[in-house]
């Protein structure tokens, strides 16, 4: 192995991979056996670069050569950049060497498209297969699947990878046609559908035969790019919800478009998506998955954008003051979950604790409730704070004034209008 050339390739192909944010590794329970290498269990830790990108896995492209010309992508064929490609064996050796030195806990591997989808996917699968079968590597492997890859290759990929993902890229089909005319939604949806069926089949099989081989134990995920096209938050969350429901996705990652290319179809170079928009989308996503919110309650045609100055749960609450205040000692769990300042864990603790005694501010504080937010929306045993007739606008103003949020800066101009 020519170390200099490998380092050069690594620089090029790790840099090209940094635009993909979907690399969290939670959810896999692959255990070390036969004194193998690595152990991908829950709790693998991740570190993030200053701009919030995950770097804990060896995160590289197999190649940045690509036959496609997606407008938003630095690897697009018309972009005049340095190109490189690893061989299968080079990626295997790098992973093992980095792992042995404790630099990484796993591999996140994506690729431009060499010749066609299957030709590229075959190589990605071979890397995972060699790591598992020749090196007994039990670390985490996330393979980005190539849209349009055959079912046979997807099936094989699932036997070796912990997680598989296929990027949707644009939130809508129109957006995809505009910026990635070589791609089509069908080539993304068919493998997702195939994976969903195989994952369900494998779960059933595992119930009957403990020793049945694992198939993508950390499930499948996808990524949508935010801000490269004009889709609003309503369209983005609607798409995310559709894919969660119909394809059993573990995660949808929202990647703020980083303007690095000049193209009349793209936003100007100096107009990057504010980090806070990504953050609000993740919060809204959390509300849909764990708090029982429907998309239309968070954003809808009348209100298509998420508030940037407050989180989506608080935003919903102050738009729906007729539901509040609720009595924390009586309300059902679903309603408690909707109170700003109360998380899933605290809500469950409240329901258990009130079986033994009526709860006041002190107990709620001990449970972990953020009283400075929740107090406007609940009543409890203590009556030393009562919401009385505060309007939603006034509550928002009070909460923002007390907030130490790093996003508070964004809200200053709006606050002064109240
Ligand atoms: S197919 Fe992937 S790597 Fe190729 S240009 Fe499109 S987004 Fe970039």
One letter per element, helices H and strands E, the order comes to: HEHEHEHEHHEHEHHHEHHHHEHH
Number of strands: 8
Helix count? 16
Report how far the terminal alpha carbons are from each other: 65 Å
Query: Hetero groups bound?
Result: iron/sulfur cluster
Tell me the helix content.
Answer: 40-55%
pLDDT averaged residue by residue: 88
Q: What value does the Rg take, in angstroms?
A: 24 Å
How does the major sheet shape up?
Answer: 6 strands, parallel
Strand order of the largest sheet: 1-2-3-4-5-6
Class based on secondary structure composition and strand pairing: alpha/beta
Characterise this structure.
With 418 residues, the protein is an alpha/beta fold. It has 16 helices and eight strands. Strand 5, helix 7 and strand 6 form a beta-alpha-beta unit. 40% of the residues are buried. Iron/sulfur cluster binds next to loops.
Brief rundown of the structure:
The protein has 418 residues and is α/β, with parallel strands linked by helices.
Topology:
Elements: H1 3-17, E1 58-61, H2 88-100, E2 106-110, H3 117-133, E3 140-144, H4 151-160, E4 163-165, H5 173-179, H6 185-208, E5 220-226, H7 233-247, E6 251-256, H8 275-290, H9 295-298, H10 312-319, E7 326-327, H11 333-336, H12 344-353, H13 361-367, H14 371-374, E8 378-379, H15 392-402, H16 408-415
Parallel strand pairs: 1-2, 2-3, 3-4, 4-5, 5-6, 7-8
Helix pairs in contact: 2-3, 3-4, 4-6, 7-8, 10-15
């Amino acid at each position: 192995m020519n170390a200099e050339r490998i380092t050069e390739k690594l620089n090029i192909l790790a840099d090209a991979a940094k635009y993909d944010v979907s690399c969290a590794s939670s959810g896999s329970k692959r255990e070390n056996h036969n004194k193998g290498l690595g152990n991908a269990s829950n709790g693998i830790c991740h570190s993030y670069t200053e701009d919030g990108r995950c770097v804990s896995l060896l995160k590289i492209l197999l190649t940045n050569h690509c036959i496609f010309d997606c407008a938003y992508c630095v690897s697009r064929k018309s972009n005049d950049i340095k190109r490189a490609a690893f061989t299968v064996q080079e990626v295997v050796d790098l992973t093992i060497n980095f792992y042995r030195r404790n630099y990484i806990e796993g591999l996140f591997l994506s690729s431009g498209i060499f010749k066609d989808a299957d030709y590229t996917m075959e190589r990605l699968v071979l890397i995972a297969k060699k790591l598992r079968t020749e090196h007994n590597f039990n670390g985490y492997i996330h393979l980005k699947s190539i849209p349009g890859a055959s079912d046979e290759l997807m099936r094989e990929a699932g036997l070796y990878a912990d997680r598989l993902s296929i990027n949707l890229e644009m939130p809508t089909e129109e957006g995809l046609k505009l910026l990635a005319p070589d791609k089509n939604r069908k080539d993304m949806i068919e493998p997702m559908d195939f994976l969903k069926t195989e994952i369900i089949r494998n779960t059933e099989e595992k119930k009957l035969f403990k020793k049945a081989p694992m198939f993508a134990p950390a499930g499948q995920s996808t990524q949508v790019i935010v801000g490269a096209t004009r889709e609003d938050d309503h369209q983005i969350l609607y798409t995310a919800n559709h894919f969660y429901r119909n394809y059993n996705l573990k995660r949808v990652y929202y990647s703020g478009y980083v303007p690095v290319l000049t193209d009349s179809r793209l936003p100007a170079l100096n107009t990057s998506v504010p980090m806070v928009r990504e953050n609000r989308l993740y919060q809204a996503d959390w509300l849909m998955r764990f708090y029982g919110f429907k998309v239309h309650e968070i954003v809808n045609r009348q209100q298509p954008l998420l508030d940037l100055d407050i989180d989506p749960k608080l935003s919903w609450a102050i738009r729906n003051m007729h539901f509040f205040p609720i009595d924390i000692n009586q309300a059902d769990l679903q309603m408690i979950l909707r109170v700003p300042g109360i998380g899933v864990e605290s809500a469950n603790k409240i329901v258990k604790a009130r079986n033994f005694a009526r709860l006041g501010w002190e107990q709620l504080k001990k449970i972990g409730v953020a009283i400075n937010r929740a107090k406007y929306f609940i009543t409890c045993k203590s009556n030393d704070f009562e919401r009385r007739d505060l309007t939603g606008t006034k509550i928002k103003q009070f909460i923002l004034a007390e907030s130490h949020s790093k996003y508070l800066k964004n809200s200053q101009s709006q606050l002064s209008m109240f």
